[in-house]
Amino acid sequence: MRLTQCLGQYAIPFIISLYDYWRNHRSRQVDRYVPSQRFEKLPLQVVYSVSRRSFYYLTQSRFRGLIAAAFLSIGGLFASSFSAGTRSTYVCPIVLHSASRLRSYRLFNLFADSVILIGITELCRIGAQFDDARRKRALTFLGTGLLGLSLVWGVISFRVPDSSPELAGQPMLDLEYSRGAFSQSVLVVILVLSAWHMLPHFDILGVSIIGGFMIVYFSSLSALTEQSPFPFISLTHAILPLAASLTGTLLFLLARVVHDEEPKLYRTNVAMQILFAVLFGISLVFAVSKHRFEGIHPIEFLISNGQIQHHNYAAQASKSKTLGDAVTEYRRRYNQHPPPGFDEWYRYATSRSSVIIDDFDQIYHDLLPFRALAPEHIRAMTHELATNPFNDLGGIRIRNGTAMVQEGIKPTHAWMVAGAADMMKDFAKYLPDMDLVFNLNDEPRVAVPWEKISMLNRQTEMQEMIPENRVVQTWSTNREEGWAPIEPADQTNITVFTDGAWRGVFDPYVSAVCPPSSKARSQRIWNRHDICLSCVAPHSMGQFPLDFNVASEICHQPDLAFLHGLLISPASFKVSQELIPVFSQSALTGFNDILFPSPWNYIEKVKYQPTKEHPDPEYGHKKNSLYWLGSTSEGVSRFGEWKGMPRQRFAHLINNNTNNQVSVLLPADSNENSFRYEIMDGSAPTSDLHLQTAVHLADPIVRCSDCDEQATELSTAGWADFQAHWSHRFLFDLDGAGFSGRFLPFLHSHSLPLKTGLFRQWFDSRVTSWMHFVPVDIRLHGLWSTLAYFAGVPAPASEGNGPNAPKMRMKAHDRQGKWIAEEGRKWANTALRKEDMEIYFFRLLLEWGRLTDDQRDVLGFGH
């Protein structure tokens, strides 16, 4: 079923015109063309004769309908090419056996739609010959047929498992799905009724031509209005489909006037011609007014903007120079007193040269809704969560300044909780007695609907800061008594989690964390063939993300439902829609997991450690290539779900994208004074632009029952030493089942990290896009343009090898690439050290200690 996402149709009017010719015109007698002598001068007579003969064939010959429909179909063909450079990276298989069916599906759909329209026409024609009762029966028969067809497709959609696996998690009568289906049904009913009333006057050819013009016109207008500045549509290219479709429509209407086929609708005919001409004029205004070229490459602006953003962040994040300053700034930011032990935290942070003292907004926002829950309720939930093995959670007990790992945790994941305990060993003595629950899975766990979390946040934001003279600066005594024992780890069977693994989770869980007015809640994108430009626009400048944190937000991007493994078919997804205290290493925007520094990074499961065999040379001495090697760990694929997962889409885009065209931003002149998006074959970036890549999925393909299909389509390579990354200039980072553990090692290297994904981590506000790394949209449509900017594009061999011949079509921006790589390396060694993880975790646990204290409303640090 998803193969139809790779198809397009624009030839239906022409097929119907063939039928119309065969049925109505092939044997009909028409007046023969009679030459006329009007001018004595030969040139004028030639022009007159050619024009008159052309007018005859276009409006009076048997082929007039074919000619009009041909113009319209040509316009549709040109209009369909508007999106050539905006094709989604959703995989349309090439090597698989299903690829050979693509043309068959296209032809079948084309002829099936045409046959249905022709059948309706014949039914209408037959019905017109009978009385009102029989015509009503004909209309009833038509309605019954359409209803039966919709029921058949409905059964197929819900019974065929691979029709839309990312939608498998939603109920049959899901509100958003039903709303979309109902609105489209209303449009179809209006269309059918309008066509039914037009058929007696215009016949099926007229209905298809007029309807086809409106479709071509509005699809072209939509493409032109969304062009800002991507995708690039030249003025000529913009005008051709509009002019061709208008020509075909006007020829059809004019032919009817010439033949006196519509005496009753003559005025309507003239009005329609005027209307269509006015619409064409409006579209011309849009086409001419659009910017054609970029005067400056967007990355130049984004790098400059990144510098400003980071400077502003660093200035406000470290304003405080003394403990008193830090206390004052804390109260100003968060409208409450710091927690007890804040002085110890300040000494801990400053003694370890922390450059971040004031900005811990992530902690504030993560914990804000918990302030609406009673401390005893939080403690009771912690016990229930930690003592049911089904929950896939692990606990830590802090008693008398010592952190102890819960016994009975899954052996395969115990290292994670042990790593968290190790992270707190140097400051645990300053923490109150409490229990903590950690997520053992890669996927996030807490997705509270927006309405509920907003209500909790409003309750807490209404709280006022108490006077300093009322502040209690010590933890409650006998805190240990408030915590029920979390050992043994299997003492309860109560759970708040539902299991959403192996099915789509966007509708039932993820979109619910967004406001009702957001696109994620109000819209569904069914088109996987093209990029959703309206989803991209809020966070992009052309193909380039303005900021990774904005680009990874869910709520304005409903198309993400089929573009990320977690949303399509997660390997594990035990999720709660109630607010519960779970600490996770990463989460999606809008989720309510409490983020903490990852033990994976803290204990250096993957480490930046160049060797003599695999050194880390300076940026300019590395291979000028993009490198990635990884497994298919993002989600589970059983019925082709892999086609939307970023890791597979990335490998396919780089190595096997011969079906789709891509759009690359390149210089419009040899001096690089302006730039424009050029559309080229999917393989051209490597074959013609000579961009170098080394991108492979690791063998074997995992988490799938369609592994053989993936291996055939994508191919694989063996694993390599992790330290082999450093020989490449550009390193790509993608999400796995959760966050990627490679990003921090990448930042520490002399290479330039390119990052895409949706998962958020504790340090996201600390690293700045285009200053410390290069963000790439998860749709990957801007990857080639980004790589072309930094790697450079050699001049084509056709431009010659003489002394004046250009050596580069686009120069490599090595200075900018090296600057970002080195700024990222410097910042990682300054603000993303193991010490910084401890400092963040220390402050987070002080805040959590206060939240779970019965005196929390008066607890604080006074200075």
TrEMBL record:
Q: Where is the Glycosyl transferase CAP10 domain?
A: 556-855
GO molecular function terms noted in the UniProt entry? transferase activity
- Keywords, ordered alphabetically: Membrane, Transferase, Transmembrane, Transmembrane helix
UniProt-listed InterPro entries? CAP10, O-Glucosyltr/Glycosyltrsf_90
Query: What parts of the sequence cross the membrane?
Result: 63-85, 105-126, 138-160, 180-199, 204-224, 230-258, 270-288
**SMART domains registered for this protein in UniProt:** CAP10
Q: Which family does it belong to?
A: Belongs to the glycosyltransferase 90 family.
This chain belongs to the protein called Glycosyl transferase CAP10 domain-containing protein
Q: Which organism is it from?
A: Penicillium nalgiovense
